[in-house]
Amino acid sequence: MKETKTSKKYFEHLDGTRFFAFFLVFLVHCFVSVDSKIGDSSIYQSVEQFFKVGFLGVDYFFVLSGFLIAWVILHEKNTTKKFDFGNFFIRRVLRIWPLYFLIVFAGFLVYYASHSYGIEASGLPPFYNFALFVINFYSIYEGVDYLFFLTFLWSISVEEQFYVGYSIIVKLFFKLNLFLLALLLIVVSIIYRYLNVDFGQQLYFHTFSILGNFGVGILVAYLAQQKNQLFVWLVNRDNVFSGVIYGILFLSLIYFNELNEWNTFRVFSKLYFSLLFGYIVFEQCFSKNRFLSFGQNRIIKYLGKISFGLYCYHGVVVTILIKVLERLNFQETFWHVFLIYPSIILLLSIGLSAVSYKYFEGYFLKLKNRY
């Protein structure tokens, strides 16, 4: 944990965790095939079903966002005795909006260009769903049968809704106890999930369903700022304790599909995984005895830094690859589907993200220092 020029903490080990969270999401999408024989095979169906657990990578990002945003706001409140909503919002805009809207505009350009050339293309939601960051609600009620690489952006909508709502609450109720706010978010999430346990789209896309993830992230930041007895106890746990937590998480991922068959688990699953993810965030930031130090590997650390690009661009690469494969019409094998295609998608996604981070996103990131 380092100090930056602005005296804010830089949690160097969190960058590595971002990459692994992205990689979970990547595993949901990287096994593509245009051969119906392979796509309908029991092997492909089993692999696809197993790796659907990768969507939990998005849940980690939500917990991490809750922690980082709460940490920044608590830091500002403690040092300046106020909260500058304008600067906070501008910093969020500079980090998220440029790449987000680049992907959105690229999607609409591809859609209208394909129609101009008589090429069949998936439909698109009305633009305001992206502009107002409500595409997650569109996905609930209208489905996700639209341009593939735009379907990823629902999670950005949820995060933006949280950023705005959370910062407004903090601004209006400056002395609000964040511990109580975090508990409220968790309770609202559990109630919503209980009432909609049989509706998969609501459980996956709705902001109320996800509020508990942010709540757990806020709890981690609050605990770290308070430095109470629980904080001291957790900081001093040996790496065997952390190893047990990692082991529980790993086994929970492996057996997720079996666990998810229980209604009770579906109600509490986001809270369950959020608590495990929250501990990982805490351990990577504050523990004296880390079981894994994600910040020590320079390559993983760098890939974590460009993880937002990886998240956005890998959908673009998958979309292009599928269109190319449909045109080539050559004989696929399982080696293509399970090894060659995923490798191509990952390498091209890294290349695009690296270029974007250096020459596009980097310009806006530098502007953040003014605010």
Report on the architecture of this protein.
A hairpin with a 5-residue loop joins strand 1 (2-3) and strand 2. The longest helix is centred in the C-terminal third of the chain and has 34 residues, at 334-367. Helix 1 (14-29) crosses helix 17, helix 5 (85-116) packs across helix 19 and helix 7 (135-142) packs across helix 9. The chain has helices at residues 14-29, 36-39, 42-50, 56-80, 85-116, 128-131, 135-142, 148-151, 154-172, 178-195, 200-205, 207-226, 229-235, 239-254, 256-259, 263-286, 298-305, 307-328, 334-367; strands at 2-3, 9-10. It has one domain (2-370). The chain is globular and about 60 Å long. Strands 1-2 form a two-stranded antiparallel sheet. By secondary structure, the chain is mainly alpha-helical. The protein is built from 19 helices and 2 strands.
β-sheet strand percentage: under 5%
Task: Tell me the series of helices and strands, N- to C-terminal.
Answer: EEHHHHHHHHHHHHHHHHHHH
| Total strand segments | 2
Radius of gyration: 21 Å
Main-sheet strand order equals 1-2
Q: Which stretches of 5+ consecutive residues score pLDDT under 50? A: 3-7
Characterize the main sheet: 2 strands, antiparallel
From the N-terminal CA to the C-terminal CA, the straight-line distance is 22 Å
Helix share of residues? Answer: over 70%
**DSSP summary: helix tally:** 19
**How many distinct folded domains?**
1
Q: What spatial form do the alpha-carbon principal axes imply?
A: globular
